[in-house]
Specification:
Rossmann fold, nine-stranded mixed beta sheet, alpha/beta
Length: about 230
């Protein structure tokens, strides 16, 4: 199984993302970061170890959540992000892994085998990578992690059209993407980028992340807890 290759230009991180965080985390991103904190505080895996896949510098991660775990391991290809992460959370002694768990359809099984006693969090990364992965990756992930506590918040769609509401919403699994979109945007044609996660990883909880003044991401949350 391949290892992580260092990258400063990854689609889910890199220099552009760090600049955006510096510019907008203290204002524009605040409502979304607060929603992520609520999701994470409600997720109560019994494991003492946590693995985070793709956290970048942890811009949307709350200290209180991370401090619940005796060990926090990281899979992050951006070397600058790893430095920023350590500076943002100086009280935490992160363990940095090298597994590329999104490199192939076989990678999820390797992830489960390498971290058998860890809860696993995908930190807004799957929606940035799913386009380039085999179609079987998402189903392989769910099979491999059936015995794990795991969670993911990830892009569903992104658009330059402002939503009608910024309030988080819950929908029943099985509703159409069109119904979900109508819960946030007015009717009519919506110009958007589909991150291919809606059918691959069905979720119930959604929130809006205004990542730029003229860019909005619909983020979905999925989680499960499994006893040790």
């Amino acid at each position: 199984m391949g290892g992580l290759r260092p990258s400063l230009t990854d689609a889910s991180g890199g220099l552009t993302y760090h600049w955006r965080a510096l510019r907008y985390r203290g204002n524009l991103w605040k409502p979304f970061c607060a929603q992520v904190e609520r999701w994470l505080l409600d997720w109560q895996p019994p494991q003492e170890k946590l693995l985070i896949v793709g956290p970048s510098a942890g811009y949307s991660l709350p200290t209180g959540f991370l401090s619940r775990f005796a060990q926090v391991a990281i899979l992050e290809p951006d070397p600058l992000a790893r430095q920023f992460l350590a500076r943002r959370f100086p009280a935490l002694d992160f363990v940095y892994g090298s597994l590329d768990c999104m490199g192939s359809a076989e990678a999820p099984a390797s992830l489960a085998a390498e971290y058998p006693d860890s809860a696993i969090l995908f930190s807004n990364v799957i929606g940035q990578r799913l386009d380039g992965l085999p179609r079987s990756w998402a189903s392989a992930l769910q099979i491999a992690l059936a015995g794990h506590s795991w969670a993911s918040y990830h892009d569903v769609i992104s658009t330059e059209i402002p939503p009608r509401t910024m309030d988080p919403r819950r929908f029943s699994v099985g509703v159409s993407l069109e119904d979900v979109l109508m819960g946030f945007w007015d009717g009519g044609e919506l110009s958007l980028h589909d991150h291919q996660t809606f059918a691959a990883l069905p979720v119930e909880d959604y929130a809006i992340w205004q990542i730029l003044p003229s860019r909005y991401h619909l983020i979905g949350w999925r989680s499960q807890c499994v006893a040790c």
